Amino acid sequence: MNCSRKGDGINTTSEKLRLAIRPTWPILCVGLFLLALVVQNSDAVDRFFVESYIHAPPKLQGPSTQSQALRLQASEEIVKTLPTETFLSEEEQQKKSSPEKDDEVDDNLTFVPSAGVQKLVESLREATVKASGGEPVEFSEAERQAWEAEHPCRSRAEIRDLYAERKHMKDVPINKQWNLVYSEYEKLHRTCMKRVGDLQQYFTSKNTSVACSFLIAEPHFGLGNKLFHTSSVFLYAILTQRVILIPESTSIPAVMCEPFAGSSWVISDEFHNLIKEGRDTSETFWKAVDGDKLVVRQAKGTLGNSVYSSSMNDEWVGPEPRFWCNTEQTYMNSVTWLSMSGCTLFAHKLFAIGMFRDILEDLFPNKLVLTHLLRSLLLPGDSAWERILHVNEVYLSEAQKQVGIQVRFFQEDEEYKLKNDRINNRITKCVWENKILPEVCPASPKDKAWNDPKFAQCKTKMSAEDHENPQVIKVLVGSLFLGLHDHLNDIYLRHEMTTTKEVVGIIQLTHELIQGSGAEVDTQALVEVISLSMSDVVLITPMSTFGGVIQGYGGVIPWYIEFGPEEDPPVVCQKGKAIEPCYMGASQYYQCPYDDVGEKKVSDVVPYLQDCLAIDVGYGYKLNMIPQGYGMQMTPDNIKDQDFYI
Predict the structure, then answer these.
(1) Could you state, in order of their start, the residue ranges of all structural domains in the chain?
(2) Of 26, 91, 164, 615, which is the most buried if we count CB atoms within 10 A?
(3) pTM for this one?
């Protein structure tokens, strides 16, 4: 069908020109009006374009699932009813009022949270309003500045810049959805702590007058274990709008910054002991849930105040099997005080809980969880941060490439003496075969390997210019023993040059021989964790939580060293399939007597919660440290979503 209008009686040039110009005048008038509007009220115009174009729902590419359509519809409905500024964090709202921050404000105005995140934000805000009792807890800019002066935390402002200095890796992208949720949770934490006042008296009197619930993190063992458990408890606290607290004796408060402006998460050991004495066991909680008849359970989902305080687990592997069920989670909402002990990373399995899954998937779309948890909640205090900066300035900052290698012998000196040479050789083979470090040149032309093509560059000696502008690779070793340091140092110092003419230097900060405990031990451990996490490439020991937090802080996919007993294994190392570490000891099956999932395998319901790599947990099977068939890892839909190599 042709819709053009030829032969309509307009024949002369002057007539055509007159008709062409005539509509211009009203358009020009409208244009002048809009220009005046822009000058007088640019914010209104900005909002018009944001709401009309940037907030417009995206076109779905290809067929969409019903859940995607429902989420998109929910997102549209919420955006219709809430202004853009609703989703700015407290910090971003302050920036918005500063003229010099115009670029950042414009960027924030384009940010619309996904439906699941909007739902979580609204839940946090509702909890804060209830906690306030109708009297909002104010926190002025002057109060914030005073609080920050009393609780300084340089790493909060500086850590991202340090990661950005890596030569071969981009840093993990900022997650605005997570930052928004964190900001809203901070308000809830501050409101509850100020409204309750004396926490100990509130607990001992079984008070519920303030609409707040609490969650005590009880991490134990080494620093890696503590960071794994605490970050996992924190994510659960956000999902359930609970105030997270941590005992002083864990050493976390002594090593890390206070994470929530205007309030503290630290409780005394005396108070913690009272909590342990006054709480019910998890078995009591399960029995209380079982006591309700099915009809009542479906309709009610609350225990009233019959269970005021309860422990949710008693084992190192984390929450017990029934914790992962919707029905039990509904009942937990009525328990004012929960406490959770452990030493593993169970944050990923929270995605297995049906009522949380959509929210978590929207909050972490690239399945990158631990990095954001660690870098917001568990930031080095100023004492540790100063040491980290010192290590970087003195040893690492001038390197063109940094490689971190973490070696952990779980049975300490006995295992070290038995396996040191074997592990050293595997590491050397791994870094050479995978081009992580350059090989050294043969000692002389008489060497049989001299004519191997890979040593072709060795025939040209290093020039004066090479020495004036050396290409330096720094290898930072983290270990209780000096075995690997001495092994690599001997290789690179006793050979004239490498195949790439790069210079390799080996650094090790400590060699304590045994794993200690206490605030100073954890502080130095954190210095090494962060310093190692600044590497472009990391090699870590399987099953090591110390290695796991290195990859978490750094946002880097690690190489696992083969620690099995074989003399000559077919694979000496293997690159991981995700940044997220393994949840060791995780049960792979639901045990939910009142839910539809029943006893299904978790991965059948949540496909991205997969088995951990055999090279990672197989060592534990052989040592009988964890049962065969256990272990769970969060994997991205596409590995490129977590691969930040340049």
Answers:
(1) 198-367, 382-577
(2) 615
(3) 0.83
